[in-house]
Task: structure prediction
Amino acid sequence: MVEKEEAGGGISEEEAAQYDRQIRLWGLEAQKRLRASQVLLVGMKGLGAEIAKNLILAGVKGLTMLDHEQVSPEDPGAQFLIRTGSVGRNRAEASLERAQNLNPMVDVKVDTENIEKKPESFFTQFDAVCLTCCSRDVIVKVDQICHKNSIKFFTGDVFGYHGYTFANLGEHEFVEEKTKVAKVSQGVEDGPDTKRAKLDSSETTMVKKKVVFCSVKEALEVDWSSDKAKAALKRTTPDYFLLQGPVSEGPPSQQLLLLRWHEGERDCGVPGPQLNPRLCGPRDADRTAPLCDRSPPLPHEGLSRRGKNQVTEPVPTISCEARGCAALVAAQGPGS
Result:
């Protein structure tokens, strides 16, 4: 949560009544910090609408919804803030009315400029920044700006049934409850009365902790050839490699192709796709590029979760980002 406090302190009786349930959940001080926070939300598609709804209902001071794209015919199906018949309008502007109606106490604004054109000074007015539907380059750039200016940074996206979220809170301090249960003396029966006495004599202490978050760039530039990284890779969900892709728009990404193969290979024993080194490059996973040299079905299409109806078509040669996809295939190839 944002740690700035409003100059006047406190909240009004009207706010206390409206936010009564959440004040009981996370306390008055946390609600005060929320009421003093300004948040920037970029990308008003389905995920952006859900984030906007949660922030507005939580009671932040102000929310700026930024999106330079227009409403597509598909948007109203997943974006509940957009009214039917808004095709062609700016997505942020089309979301404003319903967003504001969720909580009149929150100052909801829109910005229709492309985030790529925003200077560093634009972001310093916010306490937290959340990006959705942004390219990898934009995510890395904005994360660096936020880290430099001590702004909380979040990013996330969804790809069908897959998705990711990333947070960079810099140096984040928090308090954790630790309960110490009294020891039972030797020779004392461990009956109901003894257990009740142990609970009554337990001591709860508050332990202060600090976590230092890494940047997006550091998270994406992991050297998977090191022994430490190889061990961690076994515990890493393949969804991690979705961050290697540029955007969630356009045709299915090559990362999704590998994810779908991973699910089929794991359950059905289907061999994985072969990477083409000639086509791999840091920006190869472009949303306008074809998925592979030709366009056959996905490697495990036609497979059930129990391995029936296995296909016999040759596995395609896929062009994809070397670091992300090659690491995934190397770590989770046939027989893993």
User: Anything to note?
Assistant: The CA atoms of residues 131 and 155 lie 5 Å apart. The first helix runs from residue 13 to 18.
